[in-house]
Every structure is written in C-alpha cells, then in structure tokens.
Amino acid sequence: TNRNMLRSMQIAKQAINAAQQVFRSASSGNSDLVLVREEQGVREITLNHPKTLNSLSLDMMDAIQEALVKDKDDVNLRCVVLTAPGKVWSAGHNLKELHNNPEIQTSVFQKLTDIIKEIQRLPVPVIGKVNGYAAAAGCQLVVSCDMVVCSTTSKFSTPGAGVGVFCSTPGVAVARIMSRPKSAYMLMTGLPISGEEAYISGMVTKAVPAEELDKEVAEIANAIKAKSRAVIALGKEFYYKQLAMSDNEAFAAAQAKMCENLQLGDTKEGIASFFEKRPPSWKHK
Known about the structure:
Radius of gyration: 20 Å
Largest sheet: 6 strands, mixed
Strand order of the largest sheet: 1-2-3-5-7-10
C-alpha cells in the first residue's frame, strides 16, 4: 500500500540522517558501541548506538565481532544472544561511510560477511532477538543468526532500492531462508514485513508477543544449556558444511559424522544415562 511504501521510505531517510551523525557522535572506542553481559553461560550482546539507529559502521561491526569471538572456546560459554533495545534493531550499513568511498565500501561489505561466517563457526548457538525494526544489512545480520526470535510487532525490510542501493548482500541471506516470491517482494518493493509474517515465511524461528520475548529466548537458551557443548559444537559445524553439499554428498558425510559423534565421551555418557534412567552428567568433551 501507499502507506507502507511511505513508511518504508521514512525509515530509509531516517537511516541516512542517522548515518550522517556517526562522525559527530563517534564514541571513544568500540566497547560502548555494544554492551556485553554474560550470565550462567549465556552471553548477551546488545547493539548500543541509538543515535545512528545502531547502524553497522565499521566500528560497530568490529565491536560486534570482538564480542562474538571473545573466549569462544571457554567451556562455560553455551549460547550467545544478539539483541538491541528501542524501536530500531539496526537500520543497516552506515551510508555516510559508503558514500563515494570505494575502498571502505569493500571493507564494509566484507566485514559483515566475516561476522556472519563467525556466527556459523562459533561452537555455540547464536540467537537473534528482535523487538523492533531490522532493515537492510541489519536484517541480513539478524537472520544470519542460527535462530531468530522476535516480537510479533517487529518489522523486517530490505528497503535499499528506495535510496538507489539494491540490497544485494542482504538478499543473499534473505533468499536462502525464504521462498523466492516472498524474498523478491521484500527486495524489489522495500516494503516491510511483520514479525508474524516473518515467522510464516520461515525467516524467524519464533514470533511471540513482546511481553513474552525474554521468556521465550530464556527457554531456548536453557534447552541449549541442557545439552553437551561438545555435541552441539560438532553438530553445528557439520550442519553448515552439509548445506553446501549435494544430497548424496551430505548423507555420506553425515554418516561419517554420526560415527565420529558416537566416539565422544559425552555421547557415551548420554547413552549410558538413557539406559540407566538418570540425567546425563556432561563433561563437554
């Protein structure tokens, strides 16, 4: 509708205006661009630059990447949650950085690709938690998490074409998790979809009322923490590898991976606990 198109354009203009502020409101370092809290095995990374609508500047992406990979092999780390407060989760790349600077353009797009690859390589699951608007590269980042939980009132869009920049890199992420007609709709119209629509389209794992969002994410994190870290790490690594394989290659590789899995100490403990009708005692190796 015309109203939705107008709203989409307003968001895009907000992103441009906010991006222009980034150098005027630059922080003294990367640490305050994100807030990191770790509690009971769950690391929560919160985007924290509302003045730029959490735009994904190089500094912001450096901070996200640093927070993601810090102590990633610590056995106490079991899950990562990537979130943001406020009405806008992230408006996408910093357009001020991208404008008329080919060298930085390459660095910016590569940096977000690197972060997405880090998410896939991380030995623990990463949950994207959204209660707001995720646009363009912000949408690309959050839907590239292993799982995404959002409020039903959240919005997702790839509106770049409205300001002359087709969302080609976000399109890679979106097109791989949604149907062609739905992803093409997002990319070619720039119109937003709701959290409810995102769930129906397969873009997100769960869409719940905003007041239930914290509880839902906590339940998922607790389910992950109840498993062996070593088993989840082995399974996650292979999950992403097999996506690039043909069916025949994937099944052959999966058979070998299952046999490898069965040699883990935690696997032997898990099977023993099943037979002995008791909770498993994981050593995470």
